[in-house]
Write a structure and sequence with these properties.
Blueprint (H helix, E strand, L loop, with lengths): L1 E5 L1 H4 L6 E5 L4 H10 L4 E4 L3 H10 L4 E4 L9 E2 L2 H5 L8 E5 L3 H7 L5 E5 L4 H11 L3 E6 L7 H15 L6 H4 L6 H11 L9 H5 L7 E8 L2 E8 L1
Parallel strand pairs: 1-8, 2-7, 2-8, 3-6, 4-5, 4-6
Antiparallel strand pairs: 3-10, 7-9, 9-10
């Protein structure tokens, strides 16, 4: 198996193979919770203005961004907030985050594209293993490809592809003191809107879900859907 760990900028050169876009804290943890609550699809974009434009074009859709709430956006990038959200069943969500969705858009050249966090690590590894694909790009979206929490998750998924019995402990333990985790925790403690004290803990729940999340082009949109393994 040929694996490469790349940054968002490097992901723009991906052509073929499997792309696995990792954003543990918090984009693809929040996304997984949206699917768990019944969301039908997530439209991924790398631009805030485009997110609002797409929301207007897709009747009944909801727009999600990270950081502080902003006019026109209905959802925050917090798994804690998402977990208690009503009315997700059958909905389309237009998501734009600083790292995760930008990384997914950058990696569109992959023949098969997945988005992942620890919450769906084994399911993601399982579906890739079953595909027989051996050319795999892991897009580490945070800190220009150096984010500890994203790199740890990417390394876990890579290991699980070859060894489904691999233990996640040494990987997930790297999340709590990562720069991203410390930032989210500090913002939550300061009372910043769009952040919650339990966000980091939810991002560390390994295999909380039994599905992977695959992104494909649908009518010129990059659409993420749940794939049950």
């Amino acid at each position: 198996m040929k694996t490469r760990f790349v940054s968002i900028d490097e992901a723009r050169s991906i052509a073929g193979g499997v792309g696995v876009v990792i954003d543990v804290v918090r984009a693809f943890t929040t996304t997984a919770w949206a699917f768990h609550l019944g969301a039908e699809r997530i439209v991924l974009t790398d631009d805030l203005a485009e997110a609002l434009k797409l929301k207007a074009q897709l009747p009944g859709s909801l727009a999600l961004k990270d950081g502080e709430p902003a006019q026109g956006f209905d959802l925050t990038n917090s798994p804690v907030h998402m977990k208690v959200r009503d009315g997700m069943r059958g909905r389309t969500i237009v998501q734009r985050t600083t790292h995760g969705t930008v990384g997914a858009v950058a990696a569109r050249g992959a023949a098969a594209l997945y988005c992942a966090g620890f919450v769906c690590a084994s399911a993601t590894a399982s579906i890739i293993r079953a595909s027989g694909e051996t050319d795999i790009w892991f897009v580490v979206t945070g800190d220009e490809g150096k984010a500890e929490e994203d790199l740890a998750c990417a390394e876990l998924v890579s290991t699980l592809i070859e060894d489904p019995q691999a233990q996640p402990g040494p990987y997930v333990s790297r999340v709590e003191h990562s720069r991203a985790a410390e930032r989210v925790t500090a913002l939550a403690q300061s009372g910043a809107k769009g952040f919650a004290a339990g966000d980091v803990a939810m991002c560390m729940e390994v295999d909380r879900f039994d599905f992977a999340m695959r992104a494909t082009m649908e009518d010129s949109l990059l659409v993420l859907r749940k794939v049950v393994v």
